[in-house]
Write a structure and sequence with these properties.
Shape: globular
Strand order of the largest sheet: 5-4-3-8-7-6
Order of helices and strands: EEHHEEEHHHEEEH
Number of helices: 6
Helix content: 40-55%
Distance between the termini: 47 Å
Strand content: 15-25%
């Protein structure tokens, strides 16, 4: 505590990360080579979609946002910022990565994290499991009205390594019903194209 790495919440008695340790984390994010390579493409994608775009990576049983890219739209849907961490599985980006993971691993993670999911107000387990199944079938992640205020939808596309394993994911959120089906499909296609471009830049494909 003397170093400022952890702080105590006197109201709850719990310990949280302090500003010094958080600063180290943000510094690591800023130096992440994936984010540096992907940034320009993701900023272009945000403008093409006219939506907020996120870059996230898996950290064990968690998902960590390492980049947020906004369009010039006056309406910005989504509350994630770099450094935000949560249980793996709860975002469209997680679903995008799950689409390329082994089914056994996906369901092992879900069972391990299920109690954490249920701590999120409004979590719909039936809708969530349906979205996981669709992600595995389709090769990309989508969700509609399964968490939080039930007014947002999302799309998640994995960025793959040369062996086809998920390295990270691009996610975007929008108001449910905001996009026509054609616009939704274009959103998926544009995000997939961007993921492939980033893979090419990372691995010189």
């Amino acid at each position: 505590m003397a170093l400022g790495w952890v702080v105590k919440d006197h109201a709850t008695g719990r310990f949280n990360l302090g500003q010094e340790l958080a600063a180290l984390g943000y510094s690591a994010i800023a130096r992440n080579p994936l984010e540096k390579v992907a940034e320009a493409e993701l900023r272009l994608l945000a403008e093409r979609l006219n939506q907020v775009v996120y870059l996230s990576v898996r950290a064990g049983l968690d998902i960590v946002c390492i980049g947020r890219y906004e369009s010039k739209s006056q309406i910005q849907i989504g509350r994630g910022d770099p450094g935000l961490r949560g249980p793996f599985g709860m975002t469209q980006s997680c679903l995008g990565m799950m689409a390329y993971m082994s089914t056994n691993e996906v369901y092992e993670i879900i069972e391990t994290n299920l109690s954490r999911y249920h701590r999120v107000e409004g979590f719909d387990e039936t809708g969530f499991r349906r979205s996981v199944k669709e992600a595995i079938q389709n090769g990309y992640g989508t969700f509609d009205n399964i968490t939080l205020d039930r007014t947002t939808s999302g799309i998640g596309i994995a960025i793959l390594d040369p062996y086809g394993q998920p390295l990270a994911a691009i996610g975007t959120t929008f108001l449910t019903g905001w996009l026509t089906e054609d616009q939704r499909q274009n959103c998926i296609l544009e995000t997939q194209k961007t993921a492939r471009k980033i893979e090419g830049l990372l691995f010189k494909l």
